[in-house]
Amino acid sequence: MTVNLVTPDRRILLETERLVLRRYERDDLDRLTRLNTDPEVMRYIGDGSLRDREQTHAGIVRANRIYDMYPGLGFWVAEEKKTHRFLGVFALIYIPKTVEVEVGYRLMKSAWGRGYATEGARALVRYGLFEVGLDRVVGLTHKENDPSKHVLMKAGLQPRGMGHYYDKELCYFVAERAKAV
Question: What digits encode the pLDDT tens for the residues 55-107?
Fold first, then answer.
């Protein structure tokens, strides 16, 4: 997989064969609200609650602070490289109340089953390990979320049992720089 870091203007984090991951922008509010108000998309995000336009706006504001507070980490809009079609969101963020950095993703249903989650997660894991310099990146998912488990493993993370995060027991996956190819 080819990953190009395209950061001179700091707007675009990286490009893969089919994806562009870029910073949130003001114009993303409607697209992100559509993503955040889909019950199927949000089922395994946080407590599963939907986020209205106001909550989504507040999330964009928080995301924009993360870029400065934690260089190299954050949330990025995923677009299809050829068409610039909005696909969803990827993240490389600290898990609250820990020192662990988690890779995450949330995609529009129209993007499910096309390999975008794996492609983006794999690129962010490599970016985190080799560009940011993290020793490890973790992935978390609900026990019953088999598609997400599959994505994490295809992205290079190995299952390590269960862990208590976000006030629930979640499946815990790890990728380590020392073991990455």
Answer: 999 999 999 899 889 999 999 999 999 999 999 999 999 999 999 999 999 99
User: In this structure, what are the phi and psi dihedrals at residue 171, rounded to the nearest 5 degrees?
Assistant: -70, 140
Question: What is 4-179's CATH topology?
Answer: Aminopeptidase (3.40.630)
CB of 67 closer than 8 Å to CB of 23: yes
Strands 74-80 and 19-23: antiparallel
Q: What is the pTM of this model?
A: 0.91
Rounded CA-CA distance 86/134 in Å is 28
Query: What residue ranges do the domains of the chain occupy?
Result: 4-179
State the helix-helix crossing angle for 146-154 and 116-126, rounded to 10 degrees.
Answer: 50
Residue 130, token pair as written in the block: 């080799």
